[in-house]
Each structure stands twice: as C-alpha cells, then as structure tokens.
Task: inverse folding
C-alpha cells in the first residue's frame, strides 16, 4: 500500500523537474497520466514518480513510501526499480501497477505537510503542503 507521496504540479511549480520546460530527462512528465517517470538523483538513487496530468501538463506524484518501506530511495532499491521502466505505462506489462484494495482511510488519518528537501524552490513552492502521508495504524 502506498503510504506517502509528494505532488509536483506543472511548470509553475519551482520544485518540479519540468519548471524550465521539456528536456530529454523530463519529457516523460509531459506525457498523459499513467506513465512512469524514474530519474537518478545524487549520483546514487532512483526515484519513482507516476504521471498524473493530461498530455503536455507535467504533473507527477513521487512515491515516497509504501507499507513497510519509508523513503523513496529505499523503496526503489527494495523493489528493484531503475531506469528500465522509465517512460513505460503503469500496468502489469511494466511490472508495476496500482490496485484499489478497497481500504478506506479516514481523512483525519491523512497528514499533509511541506515537501521534503526542496527549499531551493523558494518560500511559496518550497512550503506548499504537497506531501501526503497516512498516519501509522490507519490500515
């Protein structure tokens, strides 16, 4: 179960990889929702993102944690995720999919905070409460 995410909302979002436009690295973000965007950071970690916007609107959700694994780098390492699935569509064919397990999380158990490690995005975008996590014991 996905337990923690961060949202990145288009070219105006200074923390978004696409805020300066389309590049070879981020072009997947400009595809329609359902694509997988995996990028390498700090010369050692893969980060998993799911594209959420319509085509040409670069919006994505960074998967920061799942049940039993906290941290986006730990998550990709544990699941064996790397650039091989970058640009593919989310689904069984890619080996990565999202399922509705019917679990109901009360809104009071969903915590919303500023994103982590993006102070460089300035006071507005650096403090947006675009990080969402489920309180322990919620499921």
Result:
């Amino acid at each position: 179960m996905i337990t923690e995410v961060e949202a990145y909302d288009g070219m105006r979002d200074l923390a978004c990889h696409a805020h300066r436009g389309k590049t070879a690295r981020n072009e997947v973000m400009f595809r329609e929702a359902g694509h997988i965007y995996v990028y390498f950071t700090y010369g050692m970690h893969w980060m998993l993102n799911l594209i959420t916007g319509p085509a040409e609107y670069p919006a994505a959700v960074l998967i920061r944690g799942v049940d039993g694994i906290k941290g986006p780098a730990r998550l990709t390492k544990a699941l064996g995720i790397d650039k091989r699935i970058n640009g593919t569509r989310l689904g069984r064919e890619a080996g990565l999919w999202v399922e509705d397990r019917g679990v109901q999380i009360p809104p009071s158990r969903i915590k919303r905070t500023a994103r982590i490690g993006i102070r460089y995005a300035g006071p507005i975008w650096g403090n947006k409460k675009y990080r969402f996590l489920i309180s322990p014991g919620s499921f």
